[in-house]
Design a protein that fits this description.
The complex is a heterotrimer of chains A (about 210), B (about 220) and C (about 425).
Chain A lengths: L1 H16 L7 H33 L6 H13 L11 H31 L11 H25 L8 H44 L5
Helix pairs in contact in A: 1-2, 1-6, 3-4, 5-6
Chain B lengths: L3 H17 L8 H33 L5 H19 L18 H19 L1 H14 L3 H16 L2 H6 L12 H10 L1 H25 L13
Helix pairs in contact in B: 2-3, 6-8, 8-9
Chain C lengths: L1 H6 L2 H21 L11 H4 L7 E7 L8 E6 L13 E8 L5 E6 L5 E4 L8 E8 L4 E3 L18 H22 L10 H16 L2 E7 L6 H20 L2 E6 L2 H17 L11 E3 L4 H15 L3 E7 L3 H11 L3 E6 L5 H7 L2 E4 L1 H11 L2 H33 L3 H14 L4
Parallel strand pairs in C: 8-9, 8-11, 9-10, 11-12, 12-13
Antiparallel strand pairs in C: 1-2, 2-5, 3-4, 3-6, 6-7
Helix pairs in contact in C: 4-12, 5-6, 6-7, 6-11, 8-9, 9-10, 11-12, 12-13
Chain lengths: ~210, ~220, ~425
């Protein structure tokens, strides 16, 4: 059984990789297996965790649970064409709740906290002296403050990017590009190691070669 | 009725959740929403799973292109349901854990799911390479800035960075690539992140208000007909 | 006579009392305030370590009446390294019931927040310092009840600033509704939408719309659905094919409602079909495997990647690029944006994603909300500018007024929990 599982895993791994060459029957088979099994897997998990788990195992006293169930049932009314429009009620419930919930959440985490973190002195006796300590810290804080400022200018919608405003917006997009470059460079290495991991599986686990 | 009730629901639920944050007896309502949502999602899955079956059964019955693969998808879906919901192939009785070693459900997970997922994930190595190649050929200034920053960070994370700029005197050590990479992460990168995050915050506030106030209502579907 | 007789005993009685007091007073003082400590031997209760003192309990402000705060002065024997105290135990009695241990704390602790309490219950506490061979209990606190507050004043500034920015959004929506023309600059990625759909129509190919992999409880998915409303309206007008595989059942439902509405608004309800949107799988990479295959097999002319994306962003964007599609992407996940920028023709960065639907609608009231957002940005920039100047001044010359204003600004933007 274990042997079979190993070969199956290798067969599927190669099936996925074969897609890099071109779309082919092997990939189609692998893809179909993946979709069917994973959809089933999620349905099973949702059923046991979210439904059975909440209604029977951790029998929550919360009446909300039943309101949720009623909304869920209303959702299913889509299947009845004549009264399918009732399914918009749970949908609008979700849209309202998601909007309301995230409005304040994003407000505090993305606006308030970020502004607070940007309140930095451009100079401090604590920075130390010399090029490495003092100058680097001053330039660092200056870049953070002007970068955040000009980045915000870039996002302005109601003013044309022209003149001094346009030049500040330009600086803003450059800073944003450095940010993207940084996270690009940061991710490249970890992505490479993922692939090395799969090659390692094929060569050492499956074919028994020692690397 | 068909239009106004949903708009009213969105408005009331949205407004209540905004204010609940500031009212201690209601402060957990946001968390309760996740509970609601999880339950609704289970019911919704009947629509999703049902749709998956319908799409592939139609493909099969009409003998559309690649229809044999639809058999595989349907079989896979039903197999997982059988193993998971009815616990077929599970050692022990119906109450035994699904994730026990040796159960059909767990075996499929380990030998099919995990390798498929991680191989798909690993394909990223190729795509990162091709994306980098294209970025290299890009000629505008923005792309060049992106690339230079990426290159410094990449070098800074490898021994090569130390070797290349090891000669820079200690008092200017900030210009050594590993240190420069740290400086980029902590200063310009942070500034860009902040601007993006503040912008996102404002974008969410504005969009949420449009939805709650019923100005944005495309998701609500057709008029009273 | 009788009185005088008793009076004769007074000196003797007094001296006996004094003697009694002198002999027994240390033992009386060391007597623990609580009976539950009777298991400990009297010797251990003696003076081998000092008890914690000044134990004070007060209501935790601005909550639903579920927490009390306790502070105390640690035992004088609780010193770093050489101290004898090995920890503390905190005891509580509910409504005069038996005391029981509610938590153990490390040496040096001097406060604790007792949570999950109920209103209307009298709580009494005491704390015990522990050493290797002794225990010393503090005096008990007065009985206290928790109080429920109806407004969380800790969040007053959050409320105030959220109110100002929300009000400015609503103000500009209203201003625009009343007919005032508001300028909104061109956003390249969104200007391209019409052309991209037009091109697909001319080529007779389809449009692929991917709304990210999160469910409807994610704001980015909501943004994607609102944009879908605008895109599908153009699609319906041009009679282009739209294909939308999704990874969440609820997103499928919402997307169908949205597209159907667009076809109705375009006066072509018969051209709509539920098959335009179909569910694939909730599994991240299973979904990616399927969407990649759709891209390669159908060769769509235009691909929209809008919403919440994770590692799959680059797999999808690169595959789309390889089939030569025009790609318009957008997400609010900063980590995925660089990949979209590298592989797509147009990328909506963060805020632009949320503004897209309003922009595409072209309706004055929707555009008004974008102007409201700008007020928020201006406010943020102003605060940063003023606070940075003040922070720099106070580093150079410590002026009291400057420090005061700066501290106030920092306090306003700090979220207390």
């Amino acid at each position: 059984m274990e042997h079979f599982a190993l070969w199956l895993a290798a067969f599927l791994t190669l099936g996925i990789i074969s897609f890099l060459y071109k779309d082919n029957a092997w990939y189609k088979l692998t893809e179909s297996i993946f979709i069917g099994l994973s959809a089933g897997y999620w349905m099973v998990s949702l059923f046991w965790d979210n439904f059975y788990g909440k209604f029977w195992v951790n029998k929550s006293e919360s009446p909300y649970l039943y309101v949720g169930a009623v909304l869920g049932l209303l959702m299913l009314l889509r299947l009845v064409p004549r009264i399918g429009w009732i399914s918009r009620w749970p949908l609008s419930f979700i849209v309202g709740a998601t909007s309301g919930l995230w409005l304040i959440n994003y407000f505090s985490s993305n606006i308030m906290k970020q502004i607070e973190a940007t309140i930095l002195p451009l100079f401090s006796a604590q920075f130390g002296s010399g090029f490495d300590a003092g100058a680097a810290a001053i330039i660092g804080n200056l870049v953070i403050v002007t970068g955040t400022f000009s980045g915000l200018v870039y996002f302005f919608f109601s003013k044309e990017h022209k003149g001094a405003f346009g030049r500040t917006a330009k600086l803003g997009i450059w800073i944003i590009m450095i940010t993207f470059g940084a996270s690009f460079g940061y991710t490249v290495m970890s992505r490479m190691s993922l692939f090395i991991g799969r090659i390692d599986f094929l060569l050492s686990d499956w074919l028994g070669m020692i690397l | 009725m068909k239009r106004n009730v949903p708009l009213a629901i969105t408005f009331i639920v949205g407004a209540v959740l905004i204010f609940s944050v500031f009212i201690p007896p209601m402060e957990n309502w946001g968390e309760d929403f996740t509970l609601f949502f999880d339950i609704i999602a289970v019911f919704a899955f009947f629509l999703g799973g049902g749709n998956l079956l319908r799409v592939h059964l139609t493909k099969l019955s009409r003998r559309k292109q690649d229809w044999p693969y639809s058999i595989v998808t349907i079989m896979g879906f039903l197999l997982m349901l059988a193993a998971g919901l009815f616990r077929i192939g599970n050692p022990g009785d119906i109450n035994a854990s699904l994730t026990e070693q040796g159960s059909l459900f767990q075996t499929i997970y380990d030998s099919v799911f995990v390798p498929l997922g991680s191989t798909m994930y690993a394909l990223l190595a190729f795509f990162v390479a091709s994306a980098s190649y294209r970025a290299f050929r890009a000629k505008n200034r923005e792309a060049t800035i992106l690339l230079v920053a990426a290159f410094i960070i990449l070098l800074g994370r490898t021994p090569l960075g130390t070797i290349v700029t090891g000669w820079v005197p200690e008092s200017f050590s900030i210009l050594q690539i590993p240190n420069l990479a740290i400086w980029i992460m902590n200063s310009p990168n942070l500034a860009g992140q902040r601007a993006i995050m503040i912008g996102i915050g404002l974008g969410v506030v504005s969009m949420s208000l449009r939805l709650i106030l019923g100005i944005e209502r495309t998701y609500l579907g057709g008029d009273d007909k | 006579m009788k009185t005088i007789g008793l009076f004769r005993f007074l000196p003797a009685l007094t001296s006996f009392s004094i003697a009694f007091f002198i002999i027994f007073s240390p033992a009386l003082k060391a007597q623990a305030p609580d009976d539950s400590l009777s298991t400990t031997s009297p010797d251990a209760l003696a003076v081998s370590i000092a008890p914690p003192t000044s134990l004070v309990v007060f209501d935790y402000k601005y909550d639903d009446g579920e927490a009390l705060e306790l502070t105390w002065v640690p035992s004088v024997d609780d010193l770093p390294v050489v101290g004898k105290v090995t920890g503390y135990e905190l005891y509580r009695s509910d409504n005069g019931g038996e005391f029981y241990k509610i938590t153990e704390l490390i040496p040096g602790s001097n406060n604790f927040r007792d949570e999950d309490l109920s209103t209307g219950v009298n709580y009494v506490y005491y704390i015990v310092a522990l050493s290797a061979d002794a225990r010393a209990a503090s005096v008990k606190t007065e009985a206290i009840q928790t109080h429920r507050e109806w407004l969380n004043f800790n969040l007053k500034y959050l409320f105030l600033i959220a109110l100002i920015i929300s009000a400015s959004v609503i103000y500009f929506i209203e201003t625009a509704r009343r007919g005032k023309k508001l300028f909104v600059r061109k956003i390249a990625g969104l200007e391209a939408v019409d052309d991209a759909i037009g091109q697909a129509t001319e080529m007779g190919r389809s449009i692929l719309f991917i709304p990210g992999i999160n469910d409807m409880d994610e704001v980015q998915t909501l943004a994607a659905i609102t944009i879908l409303g605008r895109v599908s309206r153009v699609v319906a007008d041009y009679d282009t094919k739209i294909h939308m595989p999704v990874s969440r059942s609820l997103v499928m439902t919402a997307a169908r409602e949205t597209i159907k509405a667009s076809y109705m608004a375009a006066g072509r309800p018969d051209a709509y079909s539920d098959d335009m949107v179909h569910y694939v799988t909730d599994e991240q990479f299973g979904y990616v495997a399927a969407v990649d295959a759709i891209m390669v097999r159908e060769k769509p002319a235009t691909i929209f990647l809008l919403g919440s994306f994770f590692a799959e962003s680059l797999i999808l964007a690169e595959t789309g690029n390889s089939v030569g599609a025009i790609q318009i992407a957008g997400t609010a996940r900063p980590a995925q944006l660089p990949f979209f920028i590298a592989a797509c023709d147009f990328t909506l960065i963060g805020e632009e994603l949320f503004a897209a639907s309003a922009y595409l609608s072209g309706e004055p009231k929707q555009l008004g909300s974008l102007k409201g957002q700008d007020v928020g940005k201006a406010l943020a920039m102003l605060v940063i500018l003023i606070a940075v100047i003040l922070a720099t001044i106070s580093e150079i010359r410590p002026l009291e007024t400057v420090r005061y204003v700066l501290d106030f600004l920092i306090q306003v933007f700090t979220i207390k929990t």
